[in-house]
Write a structure and sequence with these properties.
Number of domains: 2
Helix content: 40-55%
Number of helices: 14
CATH architecture of the largest domain: 3-Layer(aba) Sandwich
Bound molecules: flavin mononucleotide
Strand order of the largest sheet: 2-1-3-6-7
Mean pLDDT: 94
Low-confidence stretches: none
Order of helices and strands: EHEHHEEEHHEHEHHHHHHHH
Length: 322
């Protein structure tokens, strides 16, 4: 039921396969069902749609702009000008350790300034498993909009890091998600998506009690996020090389320019060689050395898990509720 007294929640989303929209829908369901909350969904649409499944070169070609947060043009936003929201849920996927380009474009738009300034924002990420640097970029963009990040929910692809290294690219390049040759299905486990309902239940209860106005975390104790420290190290390493290669490729030509092709292929060879050499070496070294740096690792883990944290003390209260 729509009423002037109702709390207004905006969900901003861009998803190619629909996985992230399903996660956002699971979170939104208790809010939509609530008689005292109105939910608006804003789908972000680039003027030039990105392909799915991805051909290899276009997949590589979005890398420099993703890393440099260089926004594509978007279609006009389908939302009334006079609407003001109490809470914004920003659902995004990660592209090359940065928010996906359509979401970056939204955050750099005038509309985002108008919608997000001084508002509490919950980010919802569904990606392979490397989201830490993207969320750092997200924090900076939200801060420049004077938006307040109050929570972060992260869903990652099922299986080990090694298996999603195979299943996620297979999914991106062919569209196939089925389990094969002992590898699990691609993408986030459907149970993790369904169980995201708990976040919506907690948000609904908080909105009823006007807690969003305090601009403090509302989703603590719900296992909203879990950071793997060894992946953080890998991300930091990869991010540095992405910046260097991204700069070179952007100097060679604009996105879509055929001059970029040879450099992109060179970059791919570089990337694959790093992945099979430096990345495993880095992980093994970090594991061996980790007993000596445990305190520092815990501090870093806590930092990247802010604002929601990985605690589970409210799981019983909000899980399994219809
Ligand atoms: C161009 C591109 C780059 C990606 N880079 C990353 C990445 O750096 N880290 C990560 O965990 N996932 C990455 N992914 C996977 C996405 O975050 C996401 O899981 C996938 O695109 C499915 O999203 P959707 O179901 O919302 O369309 C990338 C996907 C694409 C298309």
């Amino acid at each position: 039921m729509t009423s002037a007294m109702n709390k207004k929640v905006l969900i901003v989303q861009y998803s190619q396969t629909g996985q992230l929209s399903r996660a956002a829908a699971a979170v939104a369901a208790p809010l939509i069902e609530s008689p005292s909350v109105d939910v608006h969904i804003l789908n972000i649409e680039p003027v030039k749609p990105y392909p799915f499944p991805w051909p290899l070169l276009p997949f590589l070609d979005v890398f420099p702009e993703s890393v440099y947060l260089d926004p594509p043009e978007l279609k006009p936003f389908d939302i009334d000008d006079d609407l003001e929201f109490d809470l914004i849920i920003l659902a995004y996927q990660v592209w090359y350790l940065a928010p996906s380009l359509p979401i970056t474009a939204f955050l750099k738009s005038e509309k985002a300034k108008q919608l997000l300034a001084n508002k509490p924002v919950v980010t919802l990420i569904a990606c392979r498993n490397m989201w830490v640097m993207a969320q750092e970029a997200m924090k900076t963009m939200l801060a420049s909009l004077h938006a307040k990040l109050i929570d972060n929910i992260v869903l990652i692809d099922q299986g080990s890091s090694l298996s999603s290294f195979v299943t996620t690219p297979r999914w991106m390049f062919t569209g196939r998600t089925n389990a094969f040759w002992g590898f699990p299905a691609a993408g986030v486990d459907e149970n993790d998506i369904t169980n995201s309902r708990r976040f919506g239940l907690a948000l609904e209860q908080a909105l009823q009690a006007d807690q969003e106005a305090l601009q403090k975390p509302l989703l603590h104790g719900l296992e909203a996020v879990n950071t793997d420290y060894s992946l953080v190290q890998t991300e930091k390493l990869a991010y540095r090389s992405f910046k260097i290669w991204g700069k070179i490729i952007r100097k060679v030509g604009k996105q879509g320019d055929s001059l970029r092709k040879p450099v992109l292929i060179l970059y791919l060879i570089f990337l694959l060689s790093i992945i099979v050499t430096v990345v495993p070496l880095n992980i093994v070294l970090k594991r061996i050395l980790s007993p000596f740096f445990q305190k520092r690792h815990m501090q870093m883990k806590e930092y990247y898990e802010l604002p929601s944290g990985s605690g589970d003390e409210r799981m019983e209260k909000f899980s399994g509720k219809q």
